[in-house]
Write a structure and sequence with these properties.
- It is a single chain.
- The chain contains 5 helices and no strands.
- With 142 residues, it is mostly helical.
- The chain has a single domain, classed as Four Helix Bundle (Hemerythrin (Met), subunit A) (Up-down Bundle).
- It is 70% helix and 0% strand.
């Protein structure tokens, strides 16, 4: 057991760029939770598709926790950047992408279509994560 744990520790790395994002512990936890929320949003959708045969409307990008957080912080200094605007776009794209995935799946879209939607959805999700990381960096520089 100890050897396994030691082996796991040898694989752990630390990104030096994280130093620029750790000035606000509350923001670190908030952004981590918002990322997890969107992972769960997608995961719950995929699980629901295993039993649903009709389409449904997903939570909008304004109604989810990240949407509410964005609305609360839109006047903050860290929200006055082009990266913030990119975060907003990527966030909207995640919700539109999940809805598109549901609608296409229920309509028996081709595998190629589903793969393309999935790819775009993952790109948008990565954009949200990078946008939230940029918020932390901007806040710490401010």
């Amino acid at each position: 057991m100890t050897q396994t744990f030691e082996h796991m520790l040898t694989r752990v790395t630390y990104e030096k760029s994280a130093d620029q994002q750790n000035c606000d512990v509350g923001l670190i936890f908030d952004t981590a939770k918002l990322k997890i929320d969107h992972i769960n949003f997608k995961e719950n959708t995929y699980n629901k598709l295993k039993s649903e045969i009709t389409s449904w409307k997903v939570t909008s990008h304004h109604e989810c926790n990240l949407g509410k957080w964005i609305n609360e912080h839109k006047s903050s200094a860290f929200a006055q950047t082009s990266e913030w605007n990119a975060l907003l776009k990527h966030h909207e794209d995640v919700h539109k992408g999940v809805q598109n995935y549901i609608d296409s799946y229920v309509a028996n879209a081709s595998m190629e279509t589903m793969e393309n939607i999935s790819r775009e959805l993952e790109i948008a999700t990565l954009g949200v994560f990078q946008g939230l990381d940029h918020v932390k960096t901007t806040k710490c520089k401010g």
